[in-house]
Amino acid sequence: MDASEALTKGGKNELINKTMKKLILILLVITAITESCKKYEDGPFISFRSVKNRLYGAHTLTKYTVNGVDSLSLFNDSLGLTFGFFYDNVYYYDLCNIGPYRKDGKWSQITWHWKLTNDDRTLNIYETYSSTTGIGPFGDKKTVDWKILKLRKNKIWMKTTYNNKEYFIELGPLKTD
Predict the structure, then answer these.
(1) Rounded to two decimals, what is the model's pTM?
(2) Dist CA 147 CA 122 (whole Å)
(3) Which of 13, 40, 131, 167 has the CA that lies 20 to 30 A from 143?
(4) Which one, of 175, 157, 173, lies nearest residue 65 by Cα?
(5) Degrees (nearest 5) of the Cα angle 108, 94, 170?
């Protein structure tokens, strides 16, 4: 092997090493960015909609558990299953109306005043009004923090602890039956 062949092989190896270093650096950057994008335990991995835009709208309570026990029917004995998140343009705050009709057809509604805290990972209910005493963390003057586990446009999972019990809710698309 003459000197020019050795130089060419050495140049190729150097080029390969530089390319590999760049690829590793790019992969590290992508990993760091994607890990920081995953805000909620159960997703989504990344979203182009703002947190509030995914919350706003009408949703149906599809799952309600207390310490892991299905309690959806019990919830519907006290409250309606519709959650309506919206922004009040008159008073300039975010609201959520829960209700309006229970399983027996009677009117029952709760209004939450809420804000996002903890880097949009927590739904802080700082004021409530209600026509009922409610159930668990839902009712008049009950203020709690809901940890957001999953937040998609038509799928919201949250949990909270209230009176030493863990409450979990799943909200899905509005049912119009």
Answers:
(1) 0.75
(2) 5
(3) 40
(4) 157
(5) 60
DSSP code per residue over 42-91 = T--S--SS-HHHHH-EEEEEEEEEETTEE-HHHHHHHS-SEEEEEEETTT
Strand-pairing partners, residue 84, are 58, 97
Cβ 116 vs Cβ 124: under 8 Å: yes
Angle at 26 between CA 25 and CA 27, to 5 degrees: 90
The C-alpha atoms of residue 60 and residue 96 are separated, in whole angstroms, by: 12
Which pair of tokens denotes residue 118?
A: 């903890």
- Residue 39 sits at φ, ψ, to 5 deg, of -85, -35
Q: Which amino acid is present at 142?
A: K
Q: Which amino acid is at 34?
A: T
Query: What tokens does 22 get?
Result: 């760049």
